[in-house]
Amino acid sequence: ARVTIRNSVITANSGLSGEAANGTADIKIEDGASAVIDHVRINGDDGVHACIWHQGTSLVVNAVDCSGSDDGIWSWADSSYSATTGDHFVIENSYFHDFTTRTSNGHEDGYQTEGASYGVIRHNTYQMTTDADSAVAIWDGLRNASDITVTGNLITGGSFAVYAEDYNPGDGAPGDPPAANGYSVTGIIFSGNVFSTFATPCVGRFGVWFDEPWPPLDGGPT
Questions:
Q1: Which of 20, 140, 179, 210 is surrounded by the fewest CB atoms within 10 Å?
Q2: Residue 108, Cα to own-chain centre: how many angstroms?
Q3: What's the rounded Cα separation, in Å, for the pair 56 and 85?
Q4: Spatial distance between the Cα atoms of 103 and 44, rounded to a whole number of angstroms
Q5: Contact call for residues 108 and 137 (beta carbons, < 8 A)
Q6: Is residue 85 within 8 Å of 115, Cβ to Cβ?
Q7: In this structure, are residues 46 and 103 in contact, taking their beta carbons and an 8 Å threshold?
Q8: Region of residue 184 (left: phi > 0; alpha: psi -120 to 50; beta: else)
Q9: Mean pLDDT of 75-96
Q10: Is the distance from CB of 214 to CB of 180 less than 8 angstroms?
Q11: Are 51 and 64 in contact (CB under 8 A)?
């Protein structure tokens, strides 16, 4: 608990590729742990899943330069250990860029969760390519996602620039169950962000927001 890594350069390569590298990271905050990562340059060297993997009790990230991983920061919902792993995070003043498709599923995201709460993502630069998945992806595949504020960031690229999508137990597409009666995505705020067309003429290759088009969630996430 309460580990601080400051003014450092970290390069890590798990030696694994594809989904065999799932859950690997340059810095991994394990169950029950907490950390402050401050002014650290992190290079995944095309061989880890994330620059920072957060499944602890809290995480503060300030002024991190993250590259060379499949995802920037993961808030992992390790429900086998606790209902709050990956919660309570602040990510600010950081630069996420030059990710790799060689590890995990190759869907690059600057920040991703399948269920986390009580987070702030503030004053970061997400320089994603047009082939990347997104800059910020907030989903509920493993548990509820709630109370996350995304504010004052500079974002370019991604298939969709950002997601706040309820797709549990399904997204209501043909042959898929609707999202009602599963986990939920609530209290997500996007405010004061700047979306750049540096990577593509559209903000995100396909758009800014994933808008749930099927009943009963017509018009957006829960």
A1: 20
A2: 9
A3: 5
A4: 10
A5: no
A6: no
A7: yes
A8: beta
A9: 95
A10: no
A11: yes
Whether the Cβ atoms of residue 29 and residue 15 lie closer than 8 Å to each other: no
Residue 222 reports pLDDT greater than 70: no
Q: How many CB atoms lie within 10 A of CB 107?
A: 16
Q: Which residues contact 87 (CB under 8 A, 6 or more apart)?
A: 57, 58, 75, 116, 117, 118, 119
Q: What is the mean predicted confidence (pLDDT) over 168-190?
A: 86
- Whether this prediction's pTM lies above 0.85 is answered by yes
Predicted local distance difference test score (pLDDT) of residue 215: 52
Spatial distance between the Cα atoms of 124 and 152, rounded to a whole number of angstroms: 7
| Contact indicator for 146, 164 with CB cutoff of 8 Å | no
- Residue among 58, 2, 50, 6 nearest 28 (CA): 50
Q: What is the pLDDT of residues 120-141, one digit of tens each?
A: 999 999 999 999 999 999 999 9
Which of 50, 57, 53 is closest to 1 using CA atoms? 57
Closest CA to 154 of 128, 174, 173: 128
Helix (H, G, I), strand (E, B) or coil at 96: strand
Q: What are phi and psi of 173, to 5 degrees?
A: -65, 165
As a whole number of angstroms, the distance between CA 179 and CA 145 comes to: 14
Q: Span 2-6, mean pLDDT?
A: 98
Question: Which pLDDT band, with edges at 50, 70 and 90, does 157 fall under?
Answer: very high
Q: What's the one-letter identity of residue 213?
A: P
- What does the alpha-carbon distance between residue 162 and residue 159 come to, in Å, rounded to a whole number? 9
pLDDT given at position 6: 98
